[in-house]
Amino acid sequence: MLDNLDKRIIAVMQGEFPLVAEPYKELAQRIGITEHQLLEKLKEYRKTGKLRKMGVVLRHREVGYAANALCAWQVPEARLKEVGQLMTAYTIVTHCYSRIPQPQWPYNFYTMLHAHTRAECQALAAELAEATGLENYQLLFSTREWKKTSMSYFPEYARGE
Prior knowledge:
By secondary structure, the protein is of the alpha+beta class. It has helices at about 5-15, 25-30, 35-50, 80-90, 120-130, 155-160, and strands spanning about 65-75, 95-100, 110-115, 135-140.
């Protein structure tokens, strides 16, 4: 179970990360604990599996990656794990997951590709196809970005309620 301190830590850690010399010290001050206490709690969360990763959300369009495509692949069921491991080894793949295919849509594996142009995306998909030996895929290009946020847990704790 999570106590109030856990919820305050989670709330502050999912927000904007301060770009200062001592970011954890600043975050700890917002929570009302010491930097050491915050770092120890984060280590504990990592060790127990409550925290899997911390990362940056890149606003890819703002840095020039205007061509983005969801690539839908037909992967034999027996090769899903192997293909997943191959695909995730490529830095150009930002998302990688499988889904149950449907009769009218036989694709069961998906990767998200980001590039500067559609031609680049097509070349990247062809490179992945060659590396994996997969021939059947569809590129679905993004036309509009609707949302660029993650789930927010315990927002009332972020506001100090």
